Amino acid sequence: GARQSPKQLLESIIAPSAKFASGYEMIVITTKNKETISGIVMEESNTKVKLKIGKSDIREIDKDNIDSRKTIPSGMPPMGNALTKREIRDLIAFLSSLKEE
Question: For the residues of 39-83, what is the DSSP string, one character each?
Answer without folding.
Answer: EEEEEE-SSEEEEEETTTEEEEEEGGGEEEEEEPPPSSPP-TTTS
